[in-house]
Design goal:
Length: 492
């Protein structure tokens, strides 16, 4: 855990290669050695501005998602008439069920394509922080396709997160109660006057804004009343006045004719809210908190929360302060966060700087490692930290790296070669007459966020020293395989 709890910036003179690599890992997904060196040359302030002010970076080359918005459309007038007839006609019932099943299967296939599209975007984006924040908000305001059952609504939500990724948290909170995917996921379309559904109100307070214990059950009931009538029609938000409870409600001690928007604003005006968001930013970008808060972590989160509050929930100032802070570059923080499946997969591909030949295979690997895009495990999102690592996922993690380096996949009857041809000499460019020790240190600087002890480093040096030509393709691929198989490679 951090030994420093200061939001004060790191001295510019201390921003070296290791700090630039750390910044690119945490504020993005890592990258090549030239990209790290470019950030280092920018210096701390310009490097942070470059990553956070990503709107200045052109992304027009990225492919747009191909998505039919009408697969899961409402029934037509003709279909509604058939539904009436189906009450007494089993043939029509079977016909309607078959048509619905066909649309569901078609939509599920479209969802798979959208999942692959987002993974490809994570890999190719010139704005890594924007995608990393989109992934954060996807896990924070978590809904999943299994329950929503509409791929276009999931895409709309994803684009909403991306649009507001580093903007205003207030806009995110106000927008999520009008988001059709979230409304459907938490059944707020059945939240009506006299028959309130508490799901959205509860998660809005517990998981989205305040955190557990900062409200009462009565606040949830009253909040649910405020959200009555918040529903959707087809692909868009719709306010149903007939379903809305227009009477006064008392939420967190405030009484008024509150609707969903005013309910959210009451939550945003609580000091618990910026603290909860600061905690989420800390966990996502600074340190895992599997063993509880240290006093230093609490102090840093308090300072970050104060800045979020002062800046009226604008996130860019908080992100810049965090990425410049002494705490962020504390040696106890650097190289001490377990890589999520997205971080491991996307980071390795971006570091190797190779074209992706099989996005479907990479998507399947990410799913097996426990992170399926558009499908967090629950409304609480992905827990992260040590939950990413077990005997099953570690096996997939190591074999994924083997595939990315060699193009080979493990099968029951041995190894099957693919078409990947990596030129490893690019990773030792700039080394004249390199020794095994120099090669290892150079590769570790790019591949590994953790500084290895002499005892951990020595087997790597010996591996190269035992080769007739330590700079040959086989020797370099071999030592890169050893590095990516080390436990330290699972950290960033």
């Amino acid at each position: 855990m951090s030994r420093i709890a200061s939001l004060q910036p790191l001295a510019a003179s201390k921003f070296g290669f290791e700090q630039a690599a750390h910044l690119l890992n945490r504020a993005g997904f890592g990258g090549t050695r030239p990209q790290i060196e470019a950030l280092q040359r920018m210096g701390l302030n310009r490097a942070v501005d470059y990553l956070v002010d990503y709107d200045r970076i052109d992304e027009s080359d990225l492919p747009e998602p191909q998505c039919d918005p009408d697969i899961m459309r409402p029934p037509t007038a003709e279909e509604r008439e058939l539904q009436k007839q189906a009450r007494t006609d089993e043939v029509i019932q079977d016909r309607l069920r078959a048509a619905q099943l066909f649309r569901q299967e078609l939509d599920a296939k479209q969802m798979v394509e959208l999942e692959r599209w987002w993974l490809g975007r994570l890999i190719a984006t010139p704005r890594p922080l924007q995608e990393k924040l989109t992934l954060l908000w996807h896990g924070h305001f978590a809904s999943h396709y299994r329950a929503v059952g509409d791929s276009y609504l999931m895409l709309k939500q994803n684009q909403f997160f991306r649009t507001h990724a580093a903007g205003s948290f207030a806009d995110l909170a106000l927008g999520i109660v009008r988001d059709p995917a979230m409304i459907k996921f938490l059944n707020n379309n059945s939240n009506r006057k006299g028959r309130p559904n508490e799901n959205l109100a509860r998660e809005l307070m517990e998981l989205f804004t305040l955190g557990e214990g900062n409200y009462t059950e009565e606040d949830i009931k009253e909040g649910a009343r405020a959200l009555t009538g918040y529903t959707y029609q087809d692909n868009d938000f719709h306010f149903d006045k007939r379903a809305a409870d227009m009477e006064t409600k008392t939420i967190l001690g405030q009484t008024g004719m509150w609707d969903g928007e005013s309910f959210v604003r009451i939550l945003l005006n609580r000091q618990d809210c910026p603290t909860f968001i600061a905690y989420k930013l800390y966990r996502h970008f600074v340190a895992d908190i599997d063993d509880g808060f240290s006093d230093l972590a609490k102090s840093f989160i308090t300072q970050l929360a104060r800045l979020i509050w002062t800046m009226r929930y604008q996130l860019k100032p908080a992100l810049k302060a965090m990425f410049r802070s002494q705490t962020f570059y504390d040696p106890a923080i650097m190289g001490n966060q377990i890589k999520s499946p997205a971080q491991l997969l996307v980071g390795t591909v971006r570091m190797l700087d190779m074209p992706v030949t099989d996005i479907n295979l990479l998507g399947d690997a990410m799913n097996m490692m426990g992170q399926k895009l558009f499908n967090p495990p629950s409304v609480a999102g992905w827990y992260g930290g040590r939950s990413w690592i077990n005997t099953s996922t570690l096996f997939v993690r190591q074999n994924l790296c083997t595939y990315l380096l060699t193009g080979k996949l493990p099968f029951r009857d041995g190894w099957s070669p693919d078409q990947i041809e990596l030129d490893p000499s690019q990773f030792i460019e700039g080394l004249e007459h390199p020794t095994p020790g120099q090669i290892v240190d150079h590769l570790l600087g790019t591949f590994c966020a953790v500084k290895l002890s002499p005892e951990r480093r020595e087997p790597l040096v010996k591996f190269l020293a035992d080769r007739a030509n330590p700079t040959s393709r086989d020797a370099l691929i071999g030592v890169m395989l050893l590095i990516t198989a080390m436990p330290e490679y699972q950290l960033c």
